[in-house]
Amino acid sequence: MSEITNANGKLKVQEVIDKILLDMCGGARFEQTCDIIAAGNPENLVTGIVTTFMPTFDVLQEAVRLGANFIISHEPTWFTGNDATDWCQEDSVYQAKRRYLERHGITIWRLHDHMHMGSDTDYIYKGLLDELGWHQYLQPDEECPWVYEIPETTVGGLAEFFKKKLEMDTIQIIGAPEMKVKRVGILVGGGRAGGSGKDYEWIKEDFSDGL
């Protein structure tokens, strides 16, 4: 959890959002974006900030335990990519989550599009590469950070590397663990083309050993 204040005391939610976008994107804003306030009030004074990849109920409870009332999430709060809720107003899970947020005065802001595309840096990939230490393996002829040539290993060896580096208990493998791997593609989330068939065309054309 982090706490942000100014000379006059605590900042409002919207002031924190403005500061983040100014620092990350130079103040640029997308007109059409999923980066919205999915719950709460932009005028609320911030008591603490929790960042998360996905605002599950466990995350909401942890924010309350920490005394934080502002959650910044990369993925949706509700059940659709744009956090539309008109269709699920009678859903019991939606209602329970909404009541909990309102009872504890929590605001959730999604930071997705601006994090990926708001500047020359895709901060999701940057954070992942910083953690993996793979910057030197990124292929310079790639327009985006998707293809890497690493010291040769096996699929199983690569899986163990990811488990250790990212502190994962388990990892799923599709393919033979003993297969040799050198050229690796990384797609986060929906993939290079939003999960379309173009992802698979790229994989075949690029001759990546592992994805």
* Arithmetic mean of pLDDT: 87
- H-E order: EEHEEHEHEHHEHEH
Residue share in helix: 25-40%
Largest sheet: 4 strands, mixed
What order do the strands of the largest sheet run in, or round the barrel if closed?
3-6-5-4
Coarse shape? globular
- The N- to C-terminal Cα distance equals 33 Å
Gyration radius (Cα, Å) is: 20 Å
Strand content: 15-25%
Question: What is the number of E strands?
Answer: 8
Annotation field: number of helices: 7
Low-confidence stretches: none
Protein structure class:
alpha/beta
List the quaternary state of the chains.
Answer: single chain
Task: Tell me what you see in this structure.
It is a single chain. With 211 residues, the protein is of the alpha/beta class. It is built from 7 helices and 8 strands, in the order ββαββαβαβααβαβα. It has a 4-stranded mixed beta sheet with strand order 3-6-5-4. The longest helix is centred in the first third of the chain and has 13 residues, at 13-25. The protein is globular, with a radius of gyration of 20 Å.
